[in-house]
Amino acid sequence: MKKKISKEFLKKLNAVTSKRPKTVIQHIIEHGSVTTEELKALGYEHAPRAARDVRELGIPLETFYVKDSYGRRIAAYRFGDYSKREDSLSKVAGRTVLSKALKKALIDKFGAKCFIYLQPMEERLLQVDHRIPYEIGGEQDEKEIDCYMLLSPSANRAKSWTCEHCPNWISKDADFCMGCFWAHPEKYNHIAGKELKQIIITFTGDEIEDYNKLIELVGVSEAENTIKGLIQEFVK
After folding, report:
1. pLDDT tens digits for 81-119?
2. Which domain CATH number covers 12?
3. Do 154 and 77 have their domain in common?
4. Are residues 18 and 56 in the same domain?
5. What pairs with residue 149 in β-bridges?
6. Are 94 and 136 in contact (CB under 8 A)?
7. CB-CB contact of 96 with 103 (8 Å)
């Protein structure tokens, strides 16, 4: 049975533009709830992440349990009581919403750039994320700003996808994350458990012409091997 949604709450729901949480929200508006089985069909392999995406927008969700198409007990989500909430609340479903003060502290210390792609960006575009995923490391004290990182929207999406598909998403070993590229790109020994090294190269200004010439000469597929060959020649 669908809950009646107030005009104020519906206005907040319809104001969401981010694709992933919007998809979940619209499903609940239309059907009253969404199950983990339905979330998977919507593209969410990890249901708690789907709920988190919505809750981080200040939208309350309740968890309850139903049977899936095979008769197994699974979780489902529906809207909570929005009338008991205030937009100024700093807690969303037990997790602290990362503050503007934390973002400012990170920018003051490291500059307005993405930690993964090392690109300078407008401050408003940068997003704050836990170095160790919240689902694995839990909450961190905002005073310990080195526990957090600044990410571009694309880097944040890439990190979320990689973490959710990493074996450690199940075993939840925070020490394992400490050595991962997605938590500490400045010093790491693996990428999601694989013994890999990665360099993000960004071309800007006059360098773009150099990049285009490289692609014309060797093609996109061979560009990486060409750069690796130059490195090998340099370190000999």
Report:
1. 876 554 433 344 444 556 788 999 999 999 999 999 998
2. 1.10.10
3. no
4. yes
5. 129
6. no
7. no
